[in-house]
């Protein structure tokens, strides 16, 4: 190893040797390139070294990757991320049989991957977040059983079925880990594929985002979500644009979940009993227009002396949301009542005892909040644009730290709302 060696070649680009060594039988120049970074230039030629192991071409305004990429036989790492004009990859890239990492994050003009990508049998990491022009993955992905990271996948696709992966092609990709986003869900054809995908068998999966965006009369959102049962070790879950009327029971069995976001689930009138999630730390619920009431069902606890959904002097038999720290409700346009379970101080001890941040934003019809919230003190966050809420300035000042305004509908702290897992 040594200091960076900088030099120019033909005025086309500046490159750096990031790592080098002496061969057992040194070449005439002595040094053999292993890692290379392209810093300047749009259509610069690639290095010719067959010993090259890593090539970093992120944010280089590349429009097309040259065919001579195939000469880099020992390449293991290729970073093409955030080249916004890159529309396709050459077939030659499928000749890089030793390639382990292919990073295409942020290549938002990329329209497709090479159909022979299945030849990259040693590929471990395929990064394709923010590739907004990409609408399907080629069938060959299903054969890459060594994959450890596949951060984006597609449900129903407009592409010909002979070319495109479907949900069922996830079946044998059980080594994937970290986070995966699955787009385009909801088609009838996704139901059988979702069952075959066996997400619950992907034990190393920690984050899952499910986006329901299929357009058509044969939407099967509830059946698809039921079949996409997540693995028990999942820590983050996001469900977006889901059009079913209820959520599956497997959600509340995920006792390692720390972050949940439910957004634009416009047909759901009842929230799932998320209070059963003992590890949950952050919960965001946005744009759910059919929710009219949030009651004891949301808490997921048994009541001893009160009927579920009504305020009383009853107490709970267990804690609800024991580790929840951040709670955000935003744009629940028809939400009128948030009902608790008791009017004594004990309810604040058993319901959300760890809560430190509460945000309620753009819930114009909300009139009441439960005692277990009113009894909290020094919360960050705040209440904004909820004109129907019947709370005095004194009550608001007691709940939220640092309140000085005389407006009863206030917002304290930052506008930070969770937007991703």
Automatic annotation (TrEMBL):
Question: What is the species listed in this Swiss-Prot or TrEMBL entry?
Answer: Arachis hypogaea
Q: Which domain of life is it from?
A: Eukaryota
Q: Which UniProt keywords apply?
A: Repeat
InterPro entries with a match to the protein in the record? LRR_dom_sf, LRR_R13L4/SHOC2-like
Asked whether the UniProt record includes Repeat among its keywords, one would answer yes
- A Pfam family: LRR_14
From the broadest rank down, the organism's phylogenetic lineage runs:
Eukaryota, Viridiplantae, Streptophyta, Embryophyta, Tracheophyta
What is the name of the protein in this document? Answer: Disease resistance R13L4/SHOC-2-like LRR domain-containing protein
Q: Where is the Disease resistance R13L4/SHOC-2-like LRR domain?
A: 44-362
Signal peptide per UniProt? none
Q: Does the keyword Repeat apply?
A: yes
